[in-house]
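Thanks for the sequence, V.! I ran snRNA-activating protein complex subunit 3 right away. Repeating your input here for the record:
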Amino acid sequence: MLVLGSQKLTELRDSICCVSDLQIGGEFSSTPDQAPEHISKDLYKSAFFYFEGTFYNDKRYPECRDLSRTIIEWSESHDRGYGKFQTAKMEDFTFNDLYIKLGFPYLYCHQGDCEHVVVITDIR
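Predicted structure:
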């Protein structure tokens, strides 16, 4: 995907298509031809990007949870040596705001545990 430096992180998040987002919640075996009202992407809107020590959480909707909280609490317990992580709202940041490394693997996480590697390969 190509993004502009002026684009918000949420624009990349919204453009990522994953089969996990298309899952149907509920029991439909008695009515298999009925179209579902909602898919997982509609029900579970929480997500984050992890770039250089900061979790950028999607907090655009009231039902969004901070998925990074569990990771941060784990890293801080028993002084695991990971240092302090930061959190921010992805809707408040553009790609121009980030300090990133070319070719370095970063993380996009959504649906609670569906993880994707994000690699920036070119900056112009």
